[in-house]
Amino acid sequence: MHNLALPLRMGLQTRILLLVIGGLTIIFAVFSYLGLQTLNESTQRSLGERLVVAKLIAAHTDRHLQEALALLGNAADPALFDLSRRDVDSGRAELGKLFLRSAFFSYAVFVVDVRGQVVWSEPYLRLPPGTVLPGYSSLREGLLAGQPGVSDLLMHPQTGVPLVMLAVPVVDRNGEIVGAVGSATDLSQGNLSLPLEPVTLGRTGYAEIVDQRGRVLYSTRADRLFQKDDHADRFYALIHDQQPVVGGCHRCHQAASGPRQNDVLAFAPLRGAPWGVALRQLEGEVLAPTQEMAKRIVLVTLPLFAAVLTAAWITTSRVVGPIRALTAASQRIADGDLDFVVKPFGKDELGALAAAFDAMRERLKASYAEIAAWNRDLEQRVEQRTRDNTLLYEEVQRKEQLRGQLLEKVIVAQEEERRRIARELHDETGQSLTALAISLASAHDSLPLEANGAKEALGRAKSLADKLLAEIRRLISDLRPTVLDDLGLVPALRRYATTNAELLHLDIQLHVEGRRRRLSPPAETALFRIVQEAITNVAKHAQATSVTIRLAFDDGRATVVVQDDGRGFDVAQTLSAGGPRRAVGLLGMRERATLLGGTLEIKSQPGAGTTLVAALPLEREEVRAHA
After folding, report:
1. Alpha helices in 160-259 (DSSP H)
2. DSSP 215
3. Domain range annotation of the chain
4. 546-553/507-513 β-pairing
5. What is the torsional sign of CA 123, 129, 135, 139?
6. Which CATH superfamily is domain 487-625 in?
7. CATH number of 76-189
8. Under a CB-based contact definition with an 8 Å cutoff, are residues 62 and 276 in contact?
9. Lowest-pLDDT range of 143-152, 179-188, 408-417
10. What sign does the CA torsion over 401, 403, 409, 412 have?
């Protein structure tokens, strides 16, 4: 995210310059790539030309060798040489003619037997008959296979003259190889220079003919003659694989004090001899035109790049400067300062933008003045409306307080009326029914035994009086249970649950949690009436089989939870206007809790039972320990 946000924080001029630089870089890269491709093609062309020259020299040298070997082959007539008796007198004249016909015969001609022992040699070889021909091992394999042979660089054992030898096999009338005729060439006389004379390789280049051991047979540099080349192993592999090659290499044979330089080497092996042609020249000289072209490209491209970048900087400055001025003007407007004039920037698009911006500022200034007038009028109206609302709110609060006080008095009066009715039922109706039951029992006992009918009637009357007395006592308990006033909330709830469980056909369980204590009379009355109303609603509407009452005490409040397994109901719909009548009872319970600063929450949904939770805060001075 930070990397993405960085370009957004850059200035417009910076972004434009980056785009220009990016575009120029891409163009430069494309042209550089094309230029490098062209330079590379030019380099490859130069290298290819070197290889072609090496191949031409190798072919030319091959042709001279083949001519010399052909002359030797014509002279190797078995009729002229009887090598079984070591007789070469008949062939001497023919070999003498060969000595004068080719540069490859410039040093000597010779005849050897199949073991390489010299039979005869003239004029400069001067090897006694029976001497093994020097270098015969390099000729032997070809000769025994019936092929002409060409030797590597040899040194004359007595004189030290550098030589190369050519030989062709002599076959007798039975087709057996009995020896060979050949020639020796003195390399110190430059007899191999003919193919290399037209070659010019600049100031640092030179051409060489090397044998398979890397020995220089001829070189355009005199100091390289008969030396072993520093790439002898590589030349050996290239000659045996008949593989021409061109590429870079180190000039390892240079003076140890100088820095190592790179050469371009083109090498082409000969086909008719284990030799090769090597053209070598310093890489800097070979590739000088290409490098000069690359330097010119850089010298042209960099100033052009700088010129375009400078032009882009000047152009963007002329564009970004007015934009920055307009941005500063926008910031002043955003800060609320409209008392200035936006300067024009000419008659182009930026000038038109500046003029439009200044016109907008003027209209905005007029609009602000008009809005300020409206705001003053609106503030006056709001202040008046606020005063009216404050008075109305205070009136509503006063009426709500009066309603609460009235509701509290109604509840108190209701509880007093319940207590009065319960007392009257207990003192008058209850005592009357008790006296009536006693009288009926006395009358029943005073009748003679034979008055069975009267006794049965009095018995039924007494049972009815007892039943009425029990019902009166239950009504007295529902109206105002004396145990609530005498013993407190927990015994009152337990007695209420025991008394009404069978009557209402419900399994009512009471669980008390926390340290039991007496609450203030209003709190105990409110919680008792909430539970009483909840049980009544369950009996009337829930179609439940069991009810659980949980009464919990903690340091700050008392909580009662009434949970049934009935059919449940939609709480929002029931409590909304126009809901079922049982909403009156639910609202009454909520009012009782609210008057004491508590809460009442109802959780239910169709088919999932109902849970009622009522919580009342406790004031410590109203709490006393329960025995």
Report:
1. 232-241
2. B
3. 76-189, 192-286, 487-625
4. parallel
5. positive
6. Histidine kinase-like ATPase, C-terminal domain (3.30.565.10)
7. 3.30.450.20
8. no
9. 408-417
10. negative
C-alpha dihedral over 121, 123, 125, 128, to 10 degrees?
A: 50
Q: Alpha-carbon distance 136 to 115, whole Å?
A: 9
> Cα-flanking dihedrals φ and ψ of residue 399, to 5°?
-70, -35
SS3 sequence of 533-578: HHHHHHHHHHCCCEEEEEEEECCCEEEEEEEECCCCCCHHHHHCCC
Nearest to 416 by CA among 531, 499, 522, 494: 522
Residue 315, classed as helix, strand or coil, is helix
Q: Does domain 192-286 have CATH number 3.30.450.20?
A: yes
- How far is residue 242's CA from residue 276's CA, in Å, rounded to a whole number? 9
221-235, 301-315, 611-625: least confident range: 611-625
Asked if pLDDT for residue 416 goes beyond 70, the answer is: no
Cβ-based burial of 388 (10 A; exposed 0-12, middle 13-18, buried ≥19): exposed
In sign, the C-alpha dihedral spanning 392, 393, 395, 396 is: positive
Per-residue burial over 401-419, b = 16 or more CB atoms within 10 Å of its CB, e = otherwise: eeeeeeeeeebeeebeebe
Which tokens in the block code for residue 461?
Answer: 């009357």
Annotate 263-310 with DSSP letters as a single string: EEEEEEE-SSSSEEEEEEEEHHHHTHHHHHHHHHHHHHHHHHHHHHHH
Q: Which residue do the tokens 């890269």 mark?
A: 29
Helix, strand or coil, per DSSP, at residue 616: strand
Amino acid identity of residue 446, one-letter, is: S
- Whether pLDDT at 324 is above 80: no
Q: Find the mean pLDDT for residues 389-407.
A: 69
DSSP for 89-153, written as a single string: HHHHHHHHHHHTT-GGGSSEEEEEETT-BEEEEEES----TTPBPTTHHHHHHHHHTT--EE---
Which two three-digit tokens encode residue 174? 């039975």
What is residue 506's three-state secondary structure?
Answer: coil
Domains 76-189 and 487-625 share a fold: no
Q: How many helices and strands, by DSSP H and E, does the chain display?
A: 15, 18
Check the CA dihedral 561-567-570-573 and report its sign.
negative
Strands 624-625 and 245-250: unpaired
Spatial separation of the C-alpha atoms in residues 574 and 581, rounded to whole Å = 8
Interatomic CA distance for residues 191 and 104, integer angstroms = 7
Compute the average pLDDT of residues 121-150: 84
The amino acid sitting at 370 is E
- Asked if 558 contacts 578 with a C-beta cutoff of 8 angstroms, the reply is no
pTM greater than 0.90 (yes/no): no
Q: Identity (one letter) of the amino acid at 348?
A: D
Residue 429, helix vs strand vs coil = helix
Tell me the per-residue pLDDT of 506-558, one tens digit each, with 9 for 90 and over. Answer: 888 989 888 877 888 888 888 888 888 888 888 888 888 889 999 888 878 88
